[in-house]
Amino acid sequence: MAGADRCLFCRIASGEIPAKKVYEDKDVFAFHDINPQAPTHVLVIPRRHIPSLDDLSLSDAATVGTTLVKVAQIARDLHLNSDGYRVVANHGDAAGQTVFHIHFHLLGGRNFGWPPG
């Protein structure tokens, strides 16, 4: 597992690797997924490196809470809230996590089935 210094998402948030930015502040960075699964597919990450959901502790509650509040704000900014949107967080290889830095997929612009994938 890569440390924060080699983490792809940390490198994107720092500007080392270019991305199509949607939002940024001191705590959160959001950018378009390079392999979109919906007409709108944005990845929202905390700037602080946390490898996976399984690595979270109570001390991370503010970080994750702030990130999720920003997910909702970005959804409103992109006008996804009127028709609905999906937020996905994957944990581990079997669930499809390919970058080990917690992140939320914000998907919208189409209808989604249930159960997912």
What would you say this structure looks like, in words?
This protein is an alpha+beta fold and 117 residues long. The chain has one domain (8-108): HIT family, subunit A, CATH 3.30.428.10. Helices cover 21% and strands 21% of the residues. It has helices spanning 8-14, 61-77; strands at 21-24, 28-32, 40-46, 85-88, 104-108. A 5-stranded antiparallel β-sheet has the order 1-2-3-5-4, with helices on one face. Strand 1 and strand 2 form a beta hairpin. The longest helix has 17 residues, at 61-77. It is globular, with a radius of gyration of 14 Å. It starts with 7 loop residues before the first helix and ends in a 9-residue tail after the last strand. The mean pLDDT is 94.
Note the total helix count: 2
Count of distinct structural domains: 1
- What is the CATH homology-level superfamily? HIT-like
Number of E strands: 5
Overall mean pLDDT stands at: 94
Classify the secondary structure makeup into a structural class: alpha+beta
Distance from first to last alpha carbon: 25 Å
Radius of gyration: 14 Å
Strand-residue fraction?
A: 15-25%
Question: How is the secondary structure organized here?
Answer:
Layout: H1 8-14, E1 21-24, E2 28-32, E3 40-46, H2 61-77, E4 85-88, E5 104-108
Antiparallel strand pairs: 1-2, 2-3, 3-5, 4-5
Quick recap:
This protein is an alpha+beta fold. The chain has 2 helices and 5 strands.
Features of this protein?
117 residues; alpha+beta; HIT family, subunit A; five-stranded antiparallel β-sheet; 2 helices; globular
